[in-house]
Design goal:
The chain is of the alpha+beta class. It is built from 3 helices and 6 strands. It has helices spanning 4-11, 17-20, 112-138; strands spanning 24-32, 38-47, 50-62, 65-74, 77-89, 92-106. It has a 6-stranded antiparallel beta sheet with strand order 1-2-3-4-5-6. A hairpin with a 2-residue loop joins strand 3 and strand 4 (65-74). Helix 1 (4-11) crosses helix 3. The longest helix has 27 residues, at 112-138. The protein is globular. The model has no long low-confidence stretch (mean pLDDT 89).
């Protein structure tokens, strides 16, 4: 359990993603906004026996705490757009409801079951591994 602010802070600490997101090997911030928040982040990822790189552009919101992204470039994906939303649970200030959305299109067509497996792995990392990381650093 953690408040929305702590969840948001962990989600925007892109350079630490390799510590908790097992498939991300490197996250490098390419550009920041006036407030110092990362705008463009390049990732190097290994998954399903393949290494890939992609760059995401990030957008921020404050009510609820929101982090959205759109693919700028990728060598294995033609679309990798998504969003986290972190909302306080009423009556439980140290508990956060996390909403995660993702749209993925691969550059090369794959059988449906492989695509579903990849989507499941991404979602597991984005939600379960982030939760475990936040709980570990908050302990």
């Amino acid at each position: 359990m953690a408040p929305p602010e702590r969840c948001f802070e962990a989600a925007v600490d892109f350079e630490k993603y390799p510590r908790w997101a097992r498939d991300i090997k490197e996250a490098r911030i390419l550009a920041r906004d006036r407030d110092g928040l990362a705008v463009d982040v390049q990732y190097r990822v290994t998954a399903m026996g393949r290494s890939t790189t992609y760059t995401l552009r990030y957008f921020y919101g404050s009510d609820p705490l929101r982090l959205a992204w759109r693919l700028q470039r990728g060598d294995a994906t033609s679309r990798l757009d998504g969003e986290y939303s972190f909302t306080a649970v009423e009556g439980a200030p140290d508990t956060t409801e996390v909403t995660y959305q993702l749209a993925v299109e691969l550059a090369v067509p794959l059988p449906g079951f492989i695509k579903r497996r990849a989507e499941s792995r991404i979602t597991h990392t984005a939600v379960d591994e982030l939760k475990a990381y936040i709980e570990a650093i908050g302990a």
